[in-house]
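Structure tokens please, single chain.
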Amino acid sequence: MSDKPCIFCEIVAGREPADVEIEYAATMVIRPLRPVTGGHAIVIPREHVTDALASPIVTALVAGDAAVYAAARAFRWDGVNLITSVGQAATQTVRHLHVHVVPRRTDDGLHLPWTGQQ
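Here you go.
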């Protein structure tokens, strides 16, 4: 266990800066430091929940807000990935539930590891 404070909790509390896109009652939508596509955003709950399995109710709220956020912008994209990971083996790097909203364009060159794309 790390003694380092949770970066997303620090952002929610206003102690760390973030590029906040929009705020909902239970979540915030922020811009990632290293976006993988134009419009990439991260939806985080205001409550500290370590991952998507830790609290199904909070996970449902986060996923719902991610879908609302994406749906309001879908006309700009050809598609979208809504991605969350649970655990280090699944590439989770921040131990605070979050959903990536990754806008996609046909032939954008972004390859997801399980799709077999070249």
